[in-house]
Amino acid sequence: MNWKAELEKFFKEHEEEGVALLKELVSKNTVNPPGNEYLVADVLKKYFDELKIPYETFEKTPKRTNLIAKVGEGHPVLFVPCHADVVPVNPDWDHDPFTVKIENGTAYGRGVGDDKGPMVSAFLLAKFLKQHEGEFKGTFLFASVADEEVGSTDGLVWLTETGKIKADYAVVPDTGSGIYKLSYGEKGLLRFQYTFRGKAGHAAYPDHGINSIWPAVAFLNSVKESYTEKIGFLKEKDQPNFSPTTFTVSGLEAGSAYNIIPKECKVRMDIRYTPQRNLEEIKAWTDSLAKAACEQYPGTSFTVEMPDHMVAFEIDPEGKLCKAAMKATKDLTGKDAVLFGMNGTTVCKQLLAAGIPSLGYSQDDDGSAHQTGEHIKLSEIPLFGIALGLLFFDLAE
Ligand SMILES: [Zn+2]
Model's pTM, two decimal places? Predict the structure, then answer.
């Protein structure tokens, strides 16, 4: 079977159906909060019933529906979660953001790219695969998931923690970066609060207290120096597919009155680190800077808290999933895709924690996700759908 030719023919024939489905999905207001993802699930159920594609629905919270539909049999199992919720709209849209506007082959509306456009591609692929069931190996799991925009606690966090996802691979069509950029990893997120301590006292008698601000300033200066490569911690291990590890000082707090020497000074930092680093290494380094800062100011000390931590990850760039995606893009377009690591975080983290290798591979939304005027070229629907199909067939080989 020449799957590429078959897929191209199918997506050409179903162009209008894709546009109609996109309009229907966008018309369902799934702004999160509150989400109401059942509105999208109801649309999908109607079509899956017609197509005799079996599906299951899961709700941790009423109306926050997750739907998983299945085509094919056996391994490999490819799980493709598209999220049904969207972000809120600003009042400055020039048309109703829940009514798709089409101009020069581009669709405008809330959710057209993030993530209802990719959902249309994945839906049409499920329909195509249903027509060919029995002619290929493996299982395609289409999913419409809830609550992605607000932490996924009603969506993939819950689905993975309760063991509802059984898959060999996942493709998360939610990067907005198109089929030429494969997100094969994500930076880690780490938040520290360093509290420097001295001794309170009357400001008129500086010798009677120990000012906690000075070790904090020394600490901040050494963090900044490291950042400008004087210490060299930051660049030595970072690798080209990721942007460098970043340290952002995002908070500073000390002092309660003009006439009191501050006993405590808090420094808050948001750190995004590449998979080549880890928590222990970064903490050992920032701790050493804090310790050196306190040594400059006898009588001071520090403690550290870590309110947030999500580990960095990357999947094997030479592994089956990355290779299948690279090959799909190349076979379809003749162009090479590049690997990149995301600065932010997606549900890939949850899937990976559940032991499922995951890749961000998607439509190109021109960076318009979450913005007024969110848009997607209609040509992205077949482009991504066909690429996803080729990727699936390649995994099964
Ligand atoms: Zn999204």
Answer: 0.87
